Amino acid sequence: MASVNTQFSIAVHVMAAIAHHEGVFASEILAGSVNANPVFVKRILVKLSKAKLAKTTVGKSGGYGLARSPKSISLLDIYSAVNPPDAFAIHTYPVRKECIVSSNIKVVMSDVLVGTQEAVHGHLRQTTLADVVSKIRARSG
């Protein structure tokens, strides 16, 4: 079974939690919301901080907050920060020159992959963190 990369959904989860509660939270609190390993969540928060989407505050009441307004953070910003893998991978088996499919499939699938990634990026670019928080609030009411 192939492994699944959940960094993007966890990154959106912690950013939505910060935006919804409009505060600064320790990574342990955010990990509790995700119900995930605090070390894993902290690694994601570090990536979000490096991308200037989250800001860190040190000290007794320190933690992570948003670096910008939720309306100005697109899901593509978050997606890019955690650098997830492509939508799918193209196999690396050697080409059998006598087979027309084997000789051409990688080039054809590369074009499909580019189109798929462009579609994903376009949709994520149009959706903001504020949109996500609004939908969460609408579902909880």
The secondary-structure class comes to mainly alpha
**Second-tier CATH architecture:** Orthogonal Bundle
Q: Could you spell the SSE succession in H and E letters?
A: HHHEEHHH
- Low-confidence sequence ranges: none
Instruction: Tell me the major beta sheet.
Output: 2 strands, antiparallel
The percentage helix is 55-70%
> How many angstroms separate the termini?
38 Å
The number of strands is: 2
Strand order of the largest sheet: 1-2
DSSP helical segment count: 6
Strand portion, in percent?
A: 5-15%
Structure description:
With 141 residues, this protein is mainly alpha-helical. The protein has one domain (6-139): Arc Repressor Mutant, subunit A (Orthogonal Bundle), CATH 1.10.10. Helices cover 59% and strands 6% of the residues. It is built from 6 helices and 2 strands; from the N terminus they run H-H-H-E-E-H-H-H. It has helices at residues 7-21, 27-34, 38-50, 75-82, 100-126, 129-140; strands at 54-57, 63-66. It has a two-stranded antiparallel sheet. Strand 1 (54-57) and strand 2 (63-66) form a beta hairpin. Helix 1 packs across helix 4, helix 2 (27-34) packs across helix 3 and helix 4 crosses helix 5 (100-126). It is elongated. The model has no long low-confidence stretch (mean pLDDT 92).
